Write a sequence for this structure.
């Protein structure tokens, strides 16, 4: 294992955070169909706790929030208590767009500006890299999103190569998916998620739809279609699976997020109608924590929103 590639592991002042209240889990989770704004995190800027075009987001089992702070060329980690850590720098991370964290707190980052996947240890120590401007391995082309399954397989939305590619946790290539037919070929995919059954969901961004695949990579469902109505999509990007198996979509071109049930039917939109401070501007990513809170990367407003089911935590 090499020494850390991070030139600094920096901690900044705390940001104000409202506590996330843990709720008891039941054997059969109740479908959550309405959400409200619970917290706004960050604002535009270069200081820790501020963002410039935040991209991918994720949480870990300790409730820490990780943000790919793209134009500040870093990953930010924000604890439940509001402590902020910065990882990276513009000579080490180049426009990071996706971040994932496994149960051992290893960090995976895809960099759109360097066409690279990197893996780091919990303290930022370098583990491996795939691709990159000087890499000898096959390169990515503007990778945008990343996720892990329960086996820690690493899925990357390799956007300009019009594919999803999968690696093991030690960096061994597994499979590529471009789409089995011309009708289901991917066009600039920018989001990916895997559910508890191993099904893979891909944002087929420029076709304005989500394709669901079996664990073997065979498409078995198409969700959405171009338009502004509920259940329709406009350049969908980041995806996440919530506690009741619902699929959250960052519906970037419609400036909203939508939740679909396991049958592909729309459950809710947020915001339901444009409303002042709740307006989203090209949201690019979504994540769900272990308590059911939903985080939205409100990219062009340079902030993260936390949503919770309406009626809870009030």
């Amino acid at each position: 294992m090499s020494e850390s590639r991070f030139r600094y592991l920096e901690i900044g002042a705390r940001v104000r955070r409202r506590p996330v209240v843990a709720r008891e889990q039941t054997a059969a989770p109740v479908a959550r169909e309405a959400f409200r704004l619970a917290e706004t995190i960050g604002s535009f800027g270069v200081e820790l706790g501020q963002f410039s075009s935040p991209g991918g987001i994720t949480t870990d089992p300790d409730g820490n929030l990780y943000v790919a702070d793209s134009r500040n060329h870093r990953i930010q980690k924000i604890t439940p208590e509001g402590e902020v850590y910065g990882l990276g720098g513009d000579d080490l991370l180049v426009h990071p767009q996706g971040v994932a964290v496994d149960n051992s707190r290893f960090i995976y980052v895809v960099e759109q500006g360097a066409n690279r996947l990197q893996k780091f240890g919990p303290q930022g120590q370098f583990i491996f890299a795939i691709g990159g401007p000087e890499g000898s391995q096959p390169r990515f082309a503007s990778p945008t999103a990343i996720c892990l399954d329960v086996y820690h397989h690493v899925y990357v939305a390799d956007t300009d190569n019009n594919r999803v590619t999968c690696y093991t946790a030690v960096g061994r290539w597994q499979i590529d998916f471009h789409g089995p037919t011309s009708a289901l070929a991917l066009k600039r995919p920018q989001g990916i998620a895997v559910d508890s059954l191993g099904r893979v969901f891909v944002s087929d961004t420029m076709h304005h739809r989500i394709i669901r695949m079996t664990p073997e990579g065979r498409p078995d469902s198409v969700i959405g279609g171009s338009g502004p109505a509920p259940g329709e999509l406009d350049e969908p990007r980041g995806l996440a699976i919530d506690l009741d198996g619902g699929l959250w979509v960052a519906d970037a071109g419609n400036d909203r997020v939508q939740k679909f049930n396991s049958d592909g039917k729309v459950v809710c939109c947020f915001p339901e109608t444009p409303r002042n401070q709740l307006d989203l501007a090209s949201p690019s990513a979504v994540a769900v924590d272990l308590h059911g809170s939903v985080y939205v990367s409100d990219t062009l407003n340079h902030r993260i929103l936390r949503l919770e089911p309406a009626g809870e935590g009030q």
Notes: The longest strand covers residues 35-41. The chain has a mean pLDDT of 88.
